[in-house]
Structure formats: C-alpha cells, structure tokens
Design a protein that fits this description.
The chain is an alpha+beta fold. It has helices spanning 13-24, 28-33, 37-58, 95-104, 109-121, 145-160, 171-179, and strands at 5-7, 60-64, 69-76, 128-136, 164-168, 183-184, 189-190, 196-202. Strands 1, 2, 3, 4, 5, 6, 7 and 8 form an eight-stranded mixed sheet that branches. The radius of gyration is 16 Å and the shape is globular. The two termini are 23 Å apart.
Amino acid sequence: MGVAIRTAGTGDRELIVRLLDEAFQDDPVSGWVFPGAEERRAKHPGLMAAFTDIVLAAGRIDVTEDGSACALWLPMPADGDHDDPAGHDGATEDEGPAQVREAVDPDNERIEMIGRLTAAIHPTGRAHEYLWMIGVAPDRQGEGLGTALIEAVLDRCDRAALPAYLEASSARSRKLYERLGFEPVGPALDLPDGPAMWPMWREPRAHRQPA
C-alpha cells in the first residue's frame, strides 16, 4: 500500500516544527549548531520553526497523512539571484542567516555560519528543486516514509525536466540519496570543528508517458 502524502499548510505549522525537532535532535549538524544537549532541547525547536516559516512562505512542504514525516522543498531559479534560504521574506543573501540567528539565538554564531556556508556551495546557473530538510519521526524511521516523500517530488522533477539538489548531513542519509539518483557535486563541506555535509545533485530522468 502506498504512502498517502499531502501538501502542508499554515495550519500544519506546529506539527511540522515538532516533527522536525524530534527528527533532528540527534542529527550531527544540529549537534554542531547546539553542542549542549540542554541548549539543543531548549533552542532547537525555534530554529526548526524559523525554517518551517521560510518554506511555508516560499516553497512547499509535503507531509504524510499520518503526520509522521515531512519534506521541505524550495524552488531555486536559474540565475542564482535568490534570497538565502536561511533568511526571512525579503532578506538579501547577506541578511538572511543573520536574521535567523537574531530570531533564534543571537549569541550562537553557528546558526548564522551554517546558513552562509551552505549558501556558498549551493549550485547556480540552472533552475532546480532544493530539498532543504526531510524529517521522519524517530519511531517511524526505516519504514520508507522518507523515500516515498522524496520520490513524489522527484517524479514531478522528472516530468518538468528539473534537477534536484540537497546537502546530506550524515553518511546514512547520503547512501539513501545515492539510491535515489543523487550524486556528489563538489567537495564535502567540513563544518569548523564539526561534521561533514555532502552537496548532492540529481539530473532529471526521462519521463515515460503511459502507453
């Protein structure tokens, strides 16, 4: 039986924030941004809320009908003249990461740093879909929900002849994305005194029309 997926709206905001917070509490990059466990429990939800608001306004959030998994996508234009994803509506590339830091935790420079570092390696020159984040509830991981969410958008990408891009935040997720057709693009991003992130790109596949 297939996974039922719908597009999230503003009424799903709290669900998405809670889901992302639970899914990324133990993620290597989240652990780098908030090194202390107590600090992470306290401030990580605010960062996930900032990200959710950005994508609700400028992109698309897919969520499973049972609320156990979600994927955040942003459409990126060909010219590369886009607001930094880690910013608020109307923010310039320089302002975006700083605004998120100010809103979430002004004393934590790593919130701003992660936005600037990922923006610096983001490919430009071709329109594409950017998988910013995908989260699955901890007790539902390993059931194929994340794969179903990604494949739904990749099918749309193939129909529109659009590439897709993401940064894998762990070796485990990197292997999943490779199975879905993503390939490394450029060197890994090594966060200062922290984990690596792998930029990955997927070319659209020829879409077969039904006979």
